[in-house]
Amino acid sequence: MMDAVGGTQSLQEFRAELLRDVYRGHYQLIDDNYDRFRFSFDGVDRSKQVNVDAHAAYLDFVLTRLESFFAASMLFSDATSRELFVRLIKYRCLGHPHLRIWEDMTWTSVQEMYQRAAAFETGPSSSSFQGVFGPLKHFEGIPTSEGPVSLDIWRDSLAYCLGQGKHRHYFFDRDGVRIAPEPGDCIIDGGACFGDTGVFFACAAGPEGRVFSFEPLPTHIDVISLNIDQNKLENRMFIVPNGLGERTNQVQAIAPALSQMSNPGFSLTNVENAVPVISLDDFATLQNLKQVDFIKLDVEGFELATLKGAARTIASSRPKLAISLYHKPEDFFEIPIYLKMKYPFYRLYLDHYTIFQEETVLYAVPE
Questions:
Q1: pLDDT tens digits, residue range 264-290?
Q2: Which of 131, 192, 261, 276 has the highest CB neighbour number within 10 Å of its CB?
């Protein structure tokens, strides 16, 4: 873990520290910081490749919006989150050869996490799904708070569900602060993909809990159905075949050209009018949900729009939030600032789950 240190006291200090550390970082080289599963899945070693133009463009993006980044950095409720926020900015300016995000998270520790997941693999999946990382595998005897479950997913998906120590995806636990699904919770799983996260949520929520899994792609829905059926969760985990956004549209079914897509990074950008989309406020009204307790959003850049479409629900229910913060550069400051301005009762925290720039999650818990 990185040391918890106080936040920067002024915009000028924030700028000076950022530039100094980025410049200094280019003179240091670190090893064991490249995820070969994620970036060399096709056998090509990209560990020495550095996109200088992308890093320079990001630094320029930060400097031209420095006041917003600085304002967002001061909104987090603990020093570790504030330091992580700044460190993630520096990482995007430097890349994996020059900076480690968490000092205790390396490719060696990631491999150990993958190996733990592999221990539950029993063979190929019965699903015909085929994606960028190949076919799915079948896993059995996976431990959860409610007993063992079975899942058909990719190994890395299971690895991050199980986590490294207290770095467990969507289950925040730091210095006595816990932000996670609890028994009896009504849960929104926005961007359900294969339903693996939803199964862990359903187990944490128990028999009295409910999980609504939003996923518009039929190829993914088939896998979610498989994972619900094999764990007998049909009474507490429900598929909603819609994307999430600020407003509900009138599209009744996904466009045929999109129906066979199998991209876990599927985004509504440019295809929103070809996919059924619903706002969380409209969904809560349709389902007569009196209370929503936990909202997780990993909706590929539509996180802020979805939050805006959940204004009534958030104001009345004050749910715990776990919001992906890495899909669009401006999300880093726009989402924290939006939440704090509109809902000042929230305390904000930040965690990150990989040795690369994806999988940053903003957590919010009401006072």
A1: 766 666 676 788 999 999 999 999 999
A2: 192
